[in-house]
Specification:
By secondary structure, this protein is α/β, with parallel strands linked by helices. The chain folds into 5 domains: about 210 residues, Response regulator (Rossmann fold); about 170 residues, 3-Layer(aba) Sandwich (Rossmann fold), CATH 3.40.50.2300; about 35 residues, no CATH class; about 50 residues, no CATH class; about 270 residues, Rhopdopsin 7-helix transmembrane proteins, CATH 1.20.1070.10. The strands form 8 sheets. An 8-stranded mixed sheet has the order 7-6-8-9-10-15-16-17, sandwiched between helices. It starts with a strand and ends with a helix. It is found in: Cell membrane. InterPro entries: ANF_lig-bd_rcpt, GPCR_3, GPCR_3_9-Cys_dom, GPCR_3_9-Cys_sf, GPCR_3_C, GPCR_3_Ca_sens_rcpt-rel, GPCR_3_vmron_rcpt_2, Peripla_BP_I. It comes from Oryctolagus cuniculus (Rabbit).
């Protein structure tokens, strides 16, 4: 007699929800079990001379009823009687159950010391991997730690940053929600709302329509739906009067909404993206389903119930297994996909592997004990700590420590035309390929939700285009923001940048604030309109000064030229020519030579000019103070002491310039900030202190000249130029006093232009105030350029004095 080894299968076939109804989807699990057992029994190389059998028990999703049928199985009676069994010695080796019953079943089997091996279906549960608490419990599903990564990768692919979550309130759902939110936060994705869906009838009534209202009100167009087999999330949805057809749902294959008999559910979930564990096709399974019928398995009352509900057959007989009035060509293949799917589901694939895992384990145990003792089919020493390759070629590993992470097929649910109910593979996700290539999608195959004709968007705020940065909104998630234009000379060249970045010093931001362009090198050139104007002005004044010098040389013997020391006048005119010409050093492409000559030449020639004015004012003052021959002042005047002021003052300025050049001389520099889009070449003064010392010394000479000229302004003489010198020094000082604040407040080419303009104005002030009146008299009023009138006035004044005294 061939020994019989039993596998007991405990699964939910009749739901306990809002209404007790048969779950046609779950019956594929039972058929997968039968298919695997028949395939093994036909295999001469696996468990030869032995036959596998099975027992099928239903459980319901309620803590009060979940243990009812397991007790019936243990007792061997129609009713459960704790601590009693009328069964003969059991030769069962395994119990295959859902995750929802795994904990209770594992605890029960350990309590009764029944040497069974329990294999669980459904998502991977870390709690059930505790070998100390559950030594005889194994999980068939691979680890799903990569599921959150896969879903986030999908969201990033479509730029969905604003999503809602509907999660089962079971520990597995809470853990998934925690992991998913952490992964989303790392990738800048925000959660609009979280709705926990109850897993039991006791808590279902408290939900009411809050989740429905929340999803309706949500601005998120993408909703992530996660539940496990025992969740009542389907019942929660069916309690709503309508669902949103414009939402995109992302879920897992653990909750197969396509099996619902509610038409509005199918309509609403058209376009859903489903993460399903990747597995190979099992050869022969579809053909097995096509030929399966109740007459082939007459002892299975659940199969008869499925058939009667699907094909409107009448049930007769006390056992409720006899069917009448069924269509002749009735088969599972003729049923709509939403009622019974011919494609092997994830759960069925896990059951298929579970049966093979038991068979391989028993086979290995028998081989080890064959030579040592008689065959013992009891499972006392049965261990599933192994791995094997199933008939489809997939590696199955039951050691949770070496269990691999799951790979996922991404399916798209199509339901148009109505009742089509097809799941189309549109992509995959694998954690074993390089980052950036883990997700693959064929977007052209994706059918989106009803009413959506293009790839949907789900964002809290519209993306900030390049040139703008995100500005967080107070009290809102990070995905909700305003867009603010980048500040000047800052750019953002990507969408949704948190901060703008500064352009390098040699570049500038365009008006759109999305690119940096190289700045154009510029300087105060001769071709520049401003530079050309200054050059023309300097040359014109230089020529005019040369003309004045020629006039003075030509009329050197006239009283107006001789009266005020014509030698000093020549020196001052020559100095003014150089003053006008030195401004040309500030215009054009800067180089080391021009940078050094700019300030030193300016300082020396202006010192020469101002010291000449000082010498002229002292000469005038001494000339009118000398009234008695032989006095010392007369000796100073005759000996040319005032003329020595010029070389002394100039030498002091030369010494200051030498110290400047020796310590920190001027050099070529760039100014990248004064003018937008340009790098200005300028001459850096090197030592600012030395520059202001030179300028301060020049100012002190001008102040001294102004003071002496002011004292001599009222001295009686027809040709006394003290008033003109006073006014010229007033203009000179006013120009340079005004120059200082203006110079400090400008940058770049304007700063250079201000200095050139000050040089020209101060030089023109000296020229105009001192020499224009004299040249006017020389050229246009020659009658005033004579001593005769002056002598007549002196004689008349002396006569008047004599008359008064007599």
């Amino acid at each position: 007699m061939i020994p019989l080894i039993m596998i007991y299968f405990i699964i939910s076939l009749v739901s306990l929800c809002l209404s007790c109804r048969f779950q046609s989807k779950n019956y594929q699990y039972a058929l997968a079990l039968v298919f695997a057992i028949e395939e093994i029994n036909k295999n001469p190389h696996l468990l030869p001379n032995m036959t596998l059998g099975f027992g099928l028990y239903n459980v319901m999703h309620s803590p009060m009823t979940v243990m009812e049928n397991p007790f019936i199985w243990l007792a061997g009676l129609e009713k459960h009687v704790p601590n009693y069994t009328c069964r003969k010695q059991s030769k069962s080796v395994a119990v295959i159950s859902e995750s929802s019953t795994a904990v209770q079943m594992g605890t029960l089997l350990e309590l009764y010391k029944i040497p069974q091996v329990s294999l669980t279906l459904g998502p991977f549960e870390p709690l059930l991997s505790d070998s100390g608490q559950f030594p005889s419990l194994y999980q068939m599903t691979p680890k799903d730690t990569s599921l959150t990564h896969g879903m986030v990768s999908l969201m990033l692919h479509f730029s969905w940053t604003w999503v809602g979550l509907a999660i089962s309130d079971l520990p597995k759902g809470i853990q998934f929600m925690s992991d998913l939110k952490a992964e989303m936060q790392k990738n800048g994705i925000c959660v609009d709302f979280v709705e926990l869906i109850p897993a039991t009838l006791e808590s279902l009534s408290s939900l009411q329509n809050s989740a429905h209202i929340q999803i309706i009100k949500s601005s998120a167009n993408v909703e992530i739906l996660f539940c496990v087999t025992e969740s009542l999330i389907g019942a929660s949805f069916q309690s709503w009067e309508q669902l949103m057809t414009w939402k995109v749902w992302v879920t897992t294959s653990q909750w197969d909404f396509a099996s619902s008999e509610k038409p509005f559910l199918l309509y609403s979930f058209h376009g859903t993206l489903i993460f399903s564990n990747h597995h190979s096709e099992i050869s022969g399974f579809k053909n097995f389903l096509q030929t399966a019928n109740p007459s082939k398995y007459p002892e299975d009352s659940y199969f008869s119930k499925l058939w009667s509900l699907a094909f409107n057959c009448s049930v007769t007989g006390a056992s409720c297994k006899t069917l009448q009035n069924c269509p002749l060509n009735a088969s599972l293949e003729s049923l709509p996909p939403h009622y019974f799917d011919m494609s092997m589901s994830d759960g069925s694939y896990n059951i298929y592997n579970a049966v093979y895992a038991v068979a391989h384990s028993v086979h290995e145990m028998l081989l080890q004990e064959l030579e040592m003792q008689p065959v013992n089919t009891s499972a006392c020493n049965l261990s599933l700590n192994l791995q094997f390759t199933n008939p489809a070629g997939d590696l199955v590993n039951l050691n949770h420590k070496r269990n691999l992470e799951a790979e996922y097929d991404i399916l798209n649910f199509w339901n148009f035309p109505y009742g089509y109910g097809r799941k189309v593979k549109v992509g995959w996700f694998s954690p074993y390929v390089s980052h950036g290539q883990q997700l693959s999608l064929s977007e052209n195959l994706i059918e989106w939700a009803t009413g959506i004709t293009e790839t949907p968007r789900s964002v809290c705020s519209v993306s900030c285009s390049p040139g703008f940065r995100k500005t967080p909104l107070e009290g809102k998630p990070a995905c909700c923001f305003d867009c603010t234009l980048c500040p000047e000379n800052e750019i953002s060249n990507q969408t949704d940048m948190d901060q703008c970045v500064n352009c390098p010093d040699l570049q500038y931001a365009n008006t759109e604030r999305d690119q940096c362009f190289h700045k154009k090198v510029t300087f105060l050139s001769f071709e520049d309109p401003l530079g050309m104007t200054l050059v023309c002005t300097a040359l014109c004044f230089s020529v005019l000064t040369v003309v004045f010098l020629g006039v003075f040389v030509k009329h050197r013997d006239t009283p107006i030229v001789k009266a005020n020391n014509r030698c000093l006048s020549y020196i001052l005119l020559i100095a003014l020519i150089f003053c006008f010409l030195c401004s040309l050093l500030f215009i054009g492409h800067p180089n080391t030579t021009t940078c050094v000559l700019q300030q030193t030449t300016f300082g020396v020639v202006f010192t020469l000019a101002v010291s000449t004015v000082l010498a002229k004012t002292i000469t005038v003052l001494l000339a009118f103070k000398v009234t008695v021959p032989g006095r010392r002042m007369r000796q100073w005047l005759l000996s040319g002491v005032p003329n020595s002021i010029i070389p002394i003052c100039s030498l002091i300025q030369l010494a200051l310039c030498g110290i400047w050049l020796g310590t920190s001389p001027p050099f070529i520099d760039t100014d990248a900030h004064s003018e937008h889009g340009h790098i200005i070449l300028v001459c850096n003064k090197g030592s600012v202190t030395a520059f202001y010392c030179v300028l301060g010394y020049l100012g002190s000479l001008a102040l001294a000249s102004f003071t002496v000229a002011f004292l001599a302004r009222n001295l009686p003489d027809k040709f006394n130029e003290a008033k003109f010198l006073t006014f010229s020094m007033l203009v000179f000082c006013s120009v340079w006093v005004t120059f200082l604040p203006v110079y400090q407040s400008t940058k770049g080419k304007v700063m250079v232009a201000v200095e050139v303009f000050s040089i020209l104005c101060s030089s023109a002030g000296l020229l105009g105030c001192i020499f224009v009146p004299k040249c006017y008299i020389i050229l246009f009023r020659p009658e005033k350029n004579a001593l005769k009138g002056l002598r007549d006035r002196i004689v008349s004044k002396e006569t008047d004095v004599l008359k008064c005294s007599s």
